[in-house]
Design a protein that fits this description.
The chain folds into two domains: 7-207, Alpha-Beta Complex (2-enoyl-CoA Hydratase, Chain A, domain 1), CATH 3.90.226.10; 212-274, Orthogonal Bundle (Lyase 2-enoyl-coa Hydratase, Chain  A, domain 2). 40% of the residues lie in helices and 15% in strands. It has helices at residues 31-46, 94-103, 120-123, 154-162, 164-173, 179-184, 196-210, 213-226, 232-247, 250-260, 271-274; strands at residues 7-12, 15-20, 52-57, 61-63, 109-113, 116-118, 130-134, 138-140, 176-178, 189-191. Strand 2 (15-20), helix 1 and strand 3 form a beta-alpha-beta unit. Helix 1 runs parallel beside helix 2 (94-103).
């Protein structure tokens, strides 16, 4: 396990918990936090004992957005000496690197948004599968009020999750809004502040205990990548390939027999080695 300084990482009972761990700075996002989150998701995909992931924050916030301690140069890669050596190249957005790594994860990811989530603090949760948010939290896609644009690939994720009109209103105004507004739009479910993590843990335990991990990995890929399809026939082809591949594997037999024998299943397949390729024609994004 890697040594982390701005997140904490724990695995128990099949659930990996990543905690953003800069509570005095309201878990503001830094380059170090970005690299540590990516490394943690690498660990998660390599560890077949991990069935589900929870991402939460230490202290009273989930993530207050980018660390603004550099002042007016915060988003200026030239001024901060981080511009690409090739003048024609584009420096990759750190939030997007995290989002794409989460998108590629083979395990379901639950965001336990325990407090305020602003900027990258909310956009990093968009490729997560389920969001549970404190009813006391404030949420904001505040980029236009900082003179920049939404990042973390949120221009792809957000309209697909809440629709283009809602995404546009949130991003154009940059308003900080109550958690109830994102819940009403279907982006998250509300929970009392002191129950957010417990609800995420209960859901994670249900998945980890009862669902076949390779089935969950394949389903996650079908759901997310299906958002890019132009016609249901593409989904039908992918579903058919998945049913054919998984249907002749050991977990399918175990799933049926455990149901018929009225006992808990014992799934043995491993996501790291046994998940079939369901999208042979899938082209990696330029920035993979």
């Amino acid at each position: 396990m890697a040594d982390y300084t701005e997140i904490s990482y724990d695995v128990a009972d099949g659930v990996a918990t990543i905690t953003l761990d800069r509570p005095e700075q309201m878990n503001a996002f830094t380059a170090t936090m970005m690299l540590e989150m990516i490394a943690a998701f690498d660990e998660i995909d390599a560890d077949d004992d991990v069935r589900v992931v929870i991402v939460t924050g230490a202290g009273r916030a989930f993530c207050a957005g980018a660390d603004l301690s550099s002042g007016g140069d915060t988003f200026d890669s030239d001024a901060r000496g981080r511009a690409p050596s090739d003048p024609e190249a584009v420096r990759r957005d750190g939030g997007g690197r995290v989002s794409l790594r989460i998108f590629d994860c083979t395990k379901p990811v639950i965001a336990a948004i325990n407090g305020h989530a602003v900027g990258v603090g909310i956009t990093m949760t968009l490729p997560m599968d389920i969001r549970i948010v404190s009813e006391d939290a404030k949420i904001g896609f505040v980029f236009a009020r900082r003179g920049i644009v939404p990042e973390a690939a949120s221009s792809w994720f957000l309209p697909r999750l809440v629709g283009i009109s809602t995404a546009a209103r949130w991003c154009y105004t940059g308003n900080v809004m109550p958690a109830s507004e994102i819940a009403a739009a279907g982006l998250a479910e509300l929970a009392p502040a002191d129950e957010v993590l417990a609800r995420a843990q209960a859901l994670a335990a249900e998945i980890a205990t009862h669902a076949a991990p390779v089935s969950v990995a394949a389903t996650r890929h079908l759901l997310w990548r299906g958002l890019t399809f132009d016609h249901p026939m593409q989904s039908h082809r992918a579903d058919s390939r998945a049913i054919q591949e998984l249907g002749r594997m050991a977990d399918a037999r175990e799933g049926v027999m455990s149901f018929l024998e009225k006992r808990e299943p014992e799934f043995t397949l491993r996501p790291s080695t046994d998940t079939p390729e369901l999208f042979p024609d899938w082209e990696d994004p330029v920035f993979r």
